[in-house]
Amino acid sequence: MRITYKDSMDIKAEDLSKVFLASGIKRPYEDLERLQRMINNADIIITAWEDEKLIGIARAVTDYAYCCYLSKRGK
Questions:
Q1: DSSP 3-53
Q2: Is the dihedral of CA 40, 26, 67, 58 positive or negative?
Q3: What is residue 1's DSSP assignment?
Q4: Which contacts (CB < 8 Å, 24+ apart) does range 8-14 have?
Q5: Averaged pLDDT, groups of 10, the chain, 75 residues long
Q6: pLDDT confidence of residue 31
Q7: What are the pLDDT digits (tens) for 34-53?
Q8: pLDDT at 1 (0 to 100)
Q9: What does the alpha-carbon distance between residue 46 and residue 6 come to, in Å, rounded to a whole number?
Q10: pTM
């Protein structure tokens, strides 16, 4: 298994939905429109890929000067 990391925001809501569903975290995986807004409005996205399959993501909102918010898994 070879995992690569990318800092491109070129991902689809459908792929993000699959990651959220598989992870078990509490996110709106069935709301594709909302997921696309989450992608579009993030300032920084780092993704993990196994071949062509998205297997992980970190999204952050930042002011690029002092503050950066990275959400974590909810209980």
A1: EEEE------HHHHHHHHHHHT--S-TT-HHHHHHHHHT-SEEEEEEETTE
A2: negative
A3: -
A4: 8/45, 8/47, 9/39, 9/40, 9/42, 9/45, 11/39, 11/45, 11/47, 11/54, 11/57, 13/39
A5: 87 92 84 94 94 91 94 62
A6: 92
A7: 999 999 999 999 999 998 89
A8: 79
A9: 6
A10: 0.80
State both tokens at 43.
């300032």
From the candidate CATH numbers 3.30.70.890, 3.40.630.30, 3.40.630.10, 1.10.1270.20, the one assigned to the domain spanning 3-70 = 3.40.630.30
Strand order through the sheet with 44-50: 3-6, 44-50, 53-62, 68-70
DSSP 8-class letter at 75: -
57 closest CA partner among 75, 6, 24, 32: 6
- The answer to whether 60 and 43 are in contact (CB under 8 A) is yes
Q: Where are the domains of the chain?
A: 3-70
